[in-house]
Amino acid sequence: MKRLIVIVGPTASGKSALALELARHFGCEIISGDSMCVYQGMDIGTAKPSQAERREIPHHLIDIREPGESFSVVDFQQLATSAIESINERGKIPLLVGGTGLYVQALLEGYQFSPTPKTDRRSDLEQNISESVIPSVLHEKLKEIDPIAANRIHPNDRKRILRALEVVSAEQRSISCDKISPDPTPLFDCIVFGLSMERQELYRRIDDRVDRMLEAGLLAEVKGLMRQGLPANSTAFQAIGYKEIVSCLQGELSLEEAIARVKQSSRRYAKRQLTWFRRMPYIRWLGQVEETEAITTFQLAASQVAEKFAIK
């Protein structure tokens, strides 16, 4: 079994900072478990590691796709597994860090996804569902019949919602996944940490983080992506922080309204992340209350890693 360290948790909980400390201490290479960090040019809104950090510590699965390209959980499973094997072969321990719950759990537990059904069911659905039916209504329907898929598909992503409904209609099964085994035991020799903190403190950190993104140039970043011809309904622009700024630049929202929505959406996303990760019984939760206590969290995590892998 390949060795692996994993850090998960809600947005703004300090995952990246802890990952860097552990990577420096144990000589790890970091694998991103964030579904949006794969896209080039989306740096500020995804809170990617800085170029200096990436020069210091090797990072994988960052900037590997153009913003207009697709990237799925199956792609992630394949690329992350390859990176884990390669890093282990070099005698190092890979460190997976991210907040995309489906990606992390699918990798650790070996989810198997069924192929796209070869039917014309989607065309039937599109003919029967008027364009006037807003995506959020379709999303509520999907939530009734496939809540797992609905949890990972954005309520405005009409294309993917129709895809999920197509699978259910054509094959009477969920698009979500069929697991190798009902046993949630990870397939790797790993230790999985989860970062948690009091909700109001987390929300404060989220709000501060959004403010720093705006100061760092998020508006200019989104303008640059739009100048490249990236359509507003692309998967990349459905990311929190991007879709709201797109709406602002298109005149649908004021800047103040857009910022408020980014903060609200980020808080809701953090709540969904925690709900997802709480279902993974092998996570070792590390509580953080104040930023100054991060070193204590690091020491606790480092001691457990050393014990797990018998590192002196």
Give your account of this protein's structure.
The chain has 13 helices and eight strands. It is of the alpha/beta class and 312 residues long. It has a six-stranded parallel sheet with strand order 3-2-4-1-7-8, with helices on both faces. Strands 5-6 form a two-stranded antiparallel sheet. It has two domains: 3-113 and 179-308, P-loop containing nucleotide triphosphate hydrolases (Rossmann fold, 3-Layer(aba) Sandwich), CATH 3.40.50.300; 121-176, Histone, subunit A.
Provide a brief overview of the structure.
The protein is 50% helix and 10% strand. The protein is of the alpha/beta class and 312 residues long.
Descriptive terms for the model:
six-stranded parallel beta sheet; Histone, subunit A; alpha/beta; Rossmann fold; 312 residues; 2 domains
